[in-house]
Amino acid sequence: MRILHVGVFSDPASTNIQMALAIKKKKNNVLCFDYRYKKKKKEFNHFHKIFLEKISKIKLPFFEKIIDFHRYYLLGNWKVNRQLYSEVKKNKYDVVFFSKTDIINYNKISQLKKYTRTWYYFMDPLRNAINIKAQKYALSSTWSSATFSSVSALFRREGANSYHITEGYNPNIFNPGERNIKKSVDIIFVGSSSSKRKNYINYLTKNKINIECFGPGWRNKSIFIDDLAVVYRRTKIILNFTRDKVGFSDRVFHALGSRTLLISEYCRDLEKFFKKGFHLEWFKTPEELLKLVKFYLKNENLREKIAIQGYNYVLKYFTWEKIIEKIFNIIQNKKDN
Fold it and tell me: Is the pTM for the entire model greater than 0.85?
């Protein structure tokens, strides 16, 4: 099939790159349309983002129109929308695949139905979906999916043809690596800091748990892709926090793909896909987290057993190739999700 993939491809850490590679491996002809790269006046992007975040909290029709105008028409965004429409109109694509793409006007997606089928793939929590009117994008598309069950439920309530499909991971990057790699770090967390996360980390530290943190707000800077995979491989336990009480990010698959024990904050979707104590562990309180960390640091054999079981599971079902296969089976009407 001829696929136009609309997303972010100029950032090496973008998930869209791994998705596009997986689509190509399925012997599809893929053209990537980087909507951020095509923007101009990039120096105003930060101010633009802050402005939209502040004004989006005002739930009045007049301000919603102002938000739409800024998002879809200012800072060169109208040119991006025009270029996209022209590209699809001129070329025959079997499917246009949208990865979030919040500066694309959802009305343009509706107009594209005259020329092609569309899939809208959303990867953020419910509050982010509501802020950018993701449900309108889903409703405007032939198919849609979300990695959080609460978001896919929102899409379906609005009348969209939507599925709950998780993110995936690239096993060529996140894998156990060479045999007998020494696991020299007790526990790590990779992600931005927040008051909740700091409270958990401080609680572990006060209880004499050695933990390293990477990302904005921590002592160690952010790490991505290959550097992240190396750190995961030399770690005994990877700590994960969820962004709400429902869904989880691709950090779960990165950790499990590295064949390292993952201990994650509980969320509803984890229980849908994984078995506690078999693929990974989860916690609901600082006390429960501390108990799990102490137990698995002392019990290496059990820690490694669960890590292997989690690794085998995600390698079989949650690589990007498997996720893309699931999506294209729906498109080709081979099976439902």
Answer: yes
